[in-house]
Write a structure and sequence with these properties.
heterodimer; A: alpha/beta; Rossmann fold; Jelly Rolls; 3 domains; 10-stranded mixed beta sheet; B: mainly alpha; 3-stranded antiparallel beta sheet; 9 helices; 3 strands
């Protein structure tokens, strides 16, 4: 073992005195803090586990603290003290039917009476600074809501065993049951919260408890499977950090800079900072064993404000959840709780499933111009108040409509969205992607050796290929933060110059190009190994060469070779400003963001032996790689409004009910035979690339009409 | 799945007065056995240890002398107290009188949140036992007894119980406490909660009395020899 773990001294969280066990002598040395699972604890670490040269993050991309730890120093996750229960919180221990009690704080408006209640169930400490629930509670209390915050089962002050995902539906249901019996509850309950505590809302909604009238899940999904395994690739960094922080025991653990990503096999990286303990669930998620309870049915009968971020790693799942809610899947799925009355469909799925799509990441940090430093909103009272207004304002506006008898009844726009690097205001539209958007397709073409290839809107008949040699001993480093890419966005241009990375770039945009909706990649892949990972990253390249990630994804591809890979890189709302270029980067790894492919048939999680793997991607010709993005029509092309400002209530109401007006979609620049191979070549009629996804308004099997002639021609 | 903070949190400025901070930290270190009985607390070293100046430190030490957790040594130094058997006997007698009546009183005054807070303390208590963390266990034990005292009377009763708890912990510092002792004690706490829940003052008083007698035996501080 690489760590200094053998001493008998005090370990872990402060030097605590040890209780004498019956029949054991007095001075028993302190042992490892409660090993959770000893399956592989203490396993010999293989030789050659050192961090391979080149895996270091380039200068300026280090993780905070800990990177320059002296050799041999002990790495250790730090147990975070619980936040203090604030004086304005009334504490309860809500009893579940199995006798387990859940720690619950109640914040009430002054003066007695009955209030609509906002509930939040989280594993991250209802009193902690990380999620600042007490501040959120006071913000809502001032607006006439009772706020209830609960530690989930097994976490922080709540009783019971750690139980990620599994208990959230029944525990949510029974907490709602407790709430309706409280004298201060007027019977109308909403839920709010981000991420896992957004998931707990979907879990509670799946029980169809009649008192749950509205939810406002942010940066989350009803299906957490994608967050753990993406297209067959384990999301190593985000999941390892999450499990380490959250699912070791009742406490939360800080570990910034503590994880040693050089350790092999990968499954030992987290236990190393826990004295051999293994977080609950981590090994299962890595092996693709996602608990069924991590995927809850979407109950579209509960009105929901879906708060999504274009730079959030849970975005795809969240948009899928929104679409399922709109489709009203709840009717077929029914309730998972016996005896709960199903809500009627009076709420009307599609006028009550609202999407708010901001240019933010998982922490609701917004996209900034390059070079503008991040300011921690919590650093000053004034900035924190401004942050809360921005963070909670749309949520209050939504709850006022769905939880208050006297609330504003005017409908809210179905989709509000903000264009990254576009105008600093909400745009709105009746669907996502906006109905006026239309696909643009680029063909990937080879470039000079060691230079960018080309993203060309013209096709090419000549066949070529791009070659990537994936060396598991020297993986391509991932530089962005797994959760908060916008806090300190790295410049990725150096990584793109590596010889094991293929990049493809457009010409500088002659005018603003607005990406709005899904971005799709189709290519034909062959590899020398039995399987391979392909990482696709989409970047914005500034005129000075500075390069910032927009989206990325990973996929596991298995033989037989060649395989056609059809991949949605993600969805976004992002402006490639005039003079900037769009770059697509293909690689065989992005480590530690995604689990490292060993190049062999071994399980990446436990693999110790590795092999190089050569990937080939076909360029040009009938199976050449194609990138397709939904874009707004350029200036002068649009017949449809590009979105309207919020505020014009009269317009807003009318706008909502507008049909998608799809016939008005304009064809933009001709896409010469790029997207559909059989299309007429040589200046014939342009062929539209098919939209990868058209949002909820698109009828199944909808084909884009092929309009004669060019849009502008 | 919020993850973690992007940066170490900006530490909120600690607005607690330096004297209370020094008092709280010094008391914690004494009760956790980090500063054992007989340890001489020199002003200079202690001030540096706690990161406070001497004036608030003197105030903190005065309070600890008053509480009996420190005593004056020869040459007027402040020393961590080593309570005698006679002192422990008196502590036991006072606790029986005070806490049994407090429990009786609490049975009539407690509300749902009070009971639930006692339940939450017991969740932590049982985790401390499972983790074999004696200091965490005793912190919970303090919280439990002080919480009942606060229900009975948040001014004098709670304060009196708190002072006696400090001396009880000094006495417990070097007693061999086994897991079985702690589990039994936790079960007695649950019995007290049930009695408070039933709002039966006699039952609550008896449950507390039984618990205190058992603790005295465990700690070897039973007043009647």
């Amino acid at each position: 073992m690489a760590t200094a773990e053998s001493g008998g001294g005090p370990r872990g969280i402060g030097a605590h005195r040890r209780i004498e066990r019956a029949g054991v002598g007095t001075q028993r040395p302190i042992e490892a803090a409660r090993p959770i699972d000893a399956r592989t604890a203490g396993a010999e670490r293989p030789a050659g586990a050192e961090r391979p040269a080149g895996a270091e993050r380039p200068a300026g991309a280090e993780r905070p603290a800990g990177a320059e730890r002296p050799a041999g120093a002990e790495r250790r996750a730090r147990r975070r003290p619980f936040g203090e229960v604030p004086a304005d919180a009334r504490q309860y221990a809500v009893r579940m039917p199995d006798g387990v009690r859940l720690a619950t704080d109640v914040y009430l408006p002054a003066g007695g009476g009955r209030w609509p209640v906002l509930l939040c169930r989280l594993p991250y400490d209802k009193c902690g600074e990380e999620c600042f629930i007490p501040r959120i509670a006071r913000w809502f209390v001032q607006r006439g809501y009772a706020v209830v915050a609960q530690d989930v089962r097994g976490k922080v002050r709540s009783g019971g065993e750690l139980d990620p995902f599994t208990s959230e539906a029944p525990d949510g249901y029974h907490t709602l049951e407790w709430l309706v019996d409280q004298r201060w509850c007027n019977g109308a309950i909403g839920m709010f919260g981000d991420s896992y505590y957004g998931f707990t809302q979907w879990a509670a909604a799946s029980t169809a408890h009649p008192a749950l009238r509205a939810i406002a899940p942010r940066v989350t999904s009803a299906d957490m499977g994608d967050a753990l395994q993406l297209n067959g690739v384990f999301q190593l960094e985000s999941t390892a950090c999450w499990c380490l922080e959250t699912w070791v025991d009742e406490a939360l653990y800080d570990y910034d800079g503590e994880l040693d990503w050089r350790i092999r096999p990968l499954c030992e990286i987290v236990p190393e900072v826990l004295g051999g303990a293994r977080p609950v669930g981590l090994d299962d998620y890595a092996a693709g064993r996602i608990p069924a309870a991590a995927r809850v049915p979407v109950n579209g009968a509960v009105p929901a404000l879906h708060l999504a971020g274009a730079f959030d790693f849970l975005l795809s799942g969240q948009l899928a959840t929104w679409r399922r809610a709109l489709a009203g899947t709840s009717a077929q799925r029914g309730s998972v709780m016996p005896g709960s009355a199903a809500r009627g469909s009076a709420a009307g799925g599609d006028s009550s499933q609202l999407l708010l799509f901001d240019a933010t990441d998982h922490s609701w940090t917004r996209l900034r111009p390059a070079g503008e430093p991040w300011l921690d909103p919590a650093a000053a009272e004034r900035t924190m108040q401004a942050f809360l207004e921005d963070y909670l304002g749309p949520v209050a506006e939504f709850f006022d409509r769905f939880l208050r008898e006297d609330g504003d009844r005017r409908p809210l726009p179905r989709v509000r969205w903000r264009l990254g690097h576009g105008p600093d205001r909400w745009l709105h539209s009746p669907a996502w992607p906006p109905p006026e958007s239309r696909p643009i397709a680029w063909t990937l073409l080879p470039g000079e050796p060691h230079g960018d290839g080309t993203l060309s809107i013209r096709g090419q008949r000549a066949r070529a290929s791009a070659r990537i040699v994936h060396d598991p001993g020297d993986p391509v480093p991932s530089q962005i933060h797994p959760y908060f890419p916008l806090v300190d966005p790295p410049d990725e241009q150096d990584v793109h110059r590596r010889s094991d990375v293929c990049s493809f770039c457009t010409d500088p945009a002659s005018e603003d190009l607005d990406l709005v909706g899904p971005i799709h990649l189709r290519l034909s892949l062959a590899a020398s190994g039995p399987s391979a990972h392909l990482i696709a990253t989409l970047c914005d390249v500034r005129p000075d060469g500075g390069t910032q990630r927009i989206l990325d994804t990973a996929v596991l591809v298995r033989r037989p070779w060649p395989q056609t890979v059809s991949l949605t890189i993600g969805e976004t709302a992002y402006r490639i400003r005039a003079g900037h270029r769009l770059r697509l980067v293909l690689a065989g790894s992005a480590f530690p963001r995604y689990v490292l492919h060993p190049g062999t048939d071994e399980d990446p999680w436990t693999a110790v032996s590795t092999a190089r793997n050569e990937l080939r991607i076909a360029l040009g010709g009938c199976d050449g790689a194609i990138l397709t993005a939904m874009c707004l029509p350029r200036r002068g092309e649009a017949r449809q409004p590009r979105g309207r400002r919020i505020g014009g209530a009269v317009h807003r109401a009318a706008h909502i009910d507008e049909p998608a007006a799809r016939s008005a979609v304009q064809i933009g620049e001709p896409v010469h035979g790029a997207a559909q191979i059989d299309g007429p070549a040589r200046g014939g009629a342009p062929v539209r690339a098919r939209s990868p996804s058209r949002g909820p308004d698109a009828p199944a099997g909808d084909q884009e009409p092929q309009l004669p002639g060019g849009g502008r021609g | 799945m919020r993850g973690f903070k992007p940066r170490p949190a900006v530490a909120a400025p600690d607005r607690t007065p330096a004297a209370s901070r020094a008092y709280g930290e010094l008391r914690r270190r004494i009760l956790h056995g980090e500063l054992g009985p007989g340890t001489i607390l020199t002003e200079a070293e202690t001030a540096e240890l706690l990161g406070v100046s001497r004036t608030p430190l003197r105030e903190a030490m005065r309070e600890l002398l008053n509480e009996g957790l420190c005593e004056e040594g020869s040459r007027r130094q402040v020393v961590v107290a080593a309570p005698s058997a006679a002192v422990n006997r008196e502590v036991a007698i006072l606790r029986r009188v005070l806490e049994c009546l407090a429990s009786r009183e609490a049975a009539g005054r407690r509300d749902d949140s009070d009971l639930d807070q006692l339940h939450l303390i017991m969740i932590r208590t049982r985790r401390a036992i499972a983790a074999a963390d004696l200091n965490a266990y005793l912190d919970c034990d303090d919280d439990f007894h002080q919480r009942i005292a606060r229900i009975a009377g948040p001014h004098l009763i709670e304060d009196a119980v708190r002072r006696l708890r400090g001396l009880t912990r000094l006495a417990a510092l070097h007693r061999p406490l086994g897991e079985e002792d702690l589990r039994r004690s936790a079960d007695q706490h649950d019995a007290i909660i049930s009695a408070l829940e039933s709002a039966d003052a006699d039952l609550a008083e008896r449950a507390m009395d039984r618990h205190l007698i058992a603790s005295e035996l465990t700690l070897g501080v039973a007043p009647a020899g």
